[in-house]
Amino acid sequence: xxxxxxxxxxxxxxxxxxxxxxxxxxxxxxxxxxxxxxxxxxxxxxxxxxxxxxxxxxxxxxxxxxxxxxxxxxxxxxxxxxxxxxxxxxxxxxxxxxxxxxxxxxxxxxxxxxxxxxxxxxxxxxxxxxxxxxxxxxxxxxxxx
Length: 145
Hints:
Blueprint: E1 7-10, E2 18-23, E3 32-34, E4 40-42, E5 45-51, E6 57-62, E7 69-74, E8 78-83, E9 89-94, E10 101-107, E11 110-115, E12 120-124, E13 129-134
Antiparallel strand pairs: 1-2, 2-5, 3-4, 6-7, 7-8, 8-9, 10-11, 11-12, 12-13
């Protein structure tokens, strides 16, 4: 594709609010192969370290639509999107009234988040507007795709 992709990861255990964006360069003694024969080269150096949220970051996802964007969900009731090239925050999307955001997904112009308030929210990330709020679960929602 010609585009340089970055790998993300929560720093240490998931009890951190920091998210590492790792440079996808090959080489160095600490590069590791993952996935067998053809595998993927895991990065050896941190490209950007961002303090994603004031509270624990729960979930991190890449934009599956091919954009250079990563999204994070947090205990602070927000979903934030980040530019993988610069590490800068693009936007902050608000969840439900102080409830933990437990999961998220992002694809091109839509970002979906779910949480302990038993709802899923879908935002248009171009306009930062809430498009849908899906209700009806009797328990917290921990995954959305």
